[in-house]
Amino acid sequence: MVFLMLEVRNLSASVDGKKILEDVNLKLNNGKVYALMGRNGSGKSTLANVLMGNPKYEITSGKITLDGEDITDFSADERAKKGLFMSFQNPVEVSGVKVFDFLRSSFNSINKNKLSLMEFQKLLEKKADELKINKEFLERYLNEGFSGGEKKKSEILQLLVLNPKVAILDETDSGLDLDSLKIVSRGISRLVNKEKIVLIITHYKRIFEHLNPDEIFIMNNGKITFNGGKEVIEELESKGFEKFENKNGKGI
Fold first, then answer.
1. What angle separates helix 117-130 from helix 148-162, to the nearest 10 degrees?
2. Calculated CA dihedral for residues 133, 138, 139, 141, nearest 10 degrees
3. Structure confidence at residue 167 (pLDDT)
4. Residue 163: closest CA among 209, 120, 219
5. What is the Cα–Cα distance from 36 to 23, expressed in whole angstroms?
6. What is the CB neighbour count within 10 angstroms for residue 41?
7. Residue 36 within a domain
8. Residue 129, helix vs strand vs coil
9. Rg (CA), the chain
């Protein structure tokens, strides 16, 4: 097994001069599922965007490393080529660009070994079948007229096709019915079984009825205030976030 680590050390960030992340520390190892939880506005999606290199956010201190390489100053495109992937809460509609063409272009942009049209079609149809996505879906314009569940499936299809080292999944479980949630969870599980890193950002425990997180991180006001095992999820369900919002990052 190749050992892989995404490490965040003493990371602070701001937007328009306002501090939004403060002294965040994370160590994520491959072959594991992590959960990042917290109230609305706690900083979860902000952290995801900073990890992915969104230029809207300015890193004011700290460091992000992948496999020992400092990627703090890398652009989003450079981070994608290094193996980072992020799914979004609300994917944008792209009129005129088919799902098939978008995924082929994305695949070729981050892989040195390009696939022929037929080779890529075979790969894509195999991954689509795993998510019970029909061929007609691949000919639709990206996210245009998609239901919430279809958008989420499209994001997970991208995940399986691009096969990143690190998958950051922002609210992937929102808007999914039970059957779709099971299918999406199986797709994520396939990635974990390939020794990848998966970080799931969510408010709810629903997805963890199908996936077993190895570690839970709680955020509040742009800080990691607590981390622990899966048992934390049950306490969150019964007692809410307040208990975990004033702790000082247990275990970090």
1. 130
2. 100
3. 94
4. 120
5. 16
6. 12
7. yes
8. helix
9. 18
Q: Which domain holds residue 213?
A: 5-244
Mean pLDDT value of segment 96-122: 92
Cα–Cα distance between 22 and 41 in angstroms, integer? 14
Distance of CA 68 to the CA centre of its chain: 20
Asked if the structure places residue 251 within a domain, the reply is: no
Q: What angle do CA 177, 179, 183 make, to 5 degrees?
A: 115
CA separation for the pair 246, 67 (Å, rounded): 31
Q: What is the pLDDT of residues 44-61, one digit of tens each?
A: 999 999 999 999 999 999
Q: Is 139 among the domain residues?
A: yes
User: Within 89-224, where are the H helices?
Assistant: 99-110, 117-130, 135-138, 148-162, 178-193
Stated length of the chain: 252
Q: How far apart are CA 163 and CA 249, in angstroms?
A: 31
Task: Provide the angle, in degrees to the nearest 10, between the axes of the packed helices 178-193 and 117-130.
Answer: 120
**Residue type, position 200, single letter:** I
If you search the block for the tokens 């208990």, which residue do you land on?
A: 243
Instruction: Specify the CATH number for the domain of residue 198.
Output: 3.40.50.300
Exposure string for 122-138, b = 16+ CB within 10 A, e = fewer: ebbeebbeebebeeebb
Q: Average pLDDT, stretch 116-145?
A: 93
Model pLDDT, residue 124: 96
Q: How many domains does the chain have?
A: 1
CA–CA distance, 235 with 240 (Å, rounded to integer): 7
Looking at per-residue confidence, does 113 or 98 come out higher?
Answer: 98
Distance CA 155, CA 188 (A): 11
In a domain, 249, yes or no: no
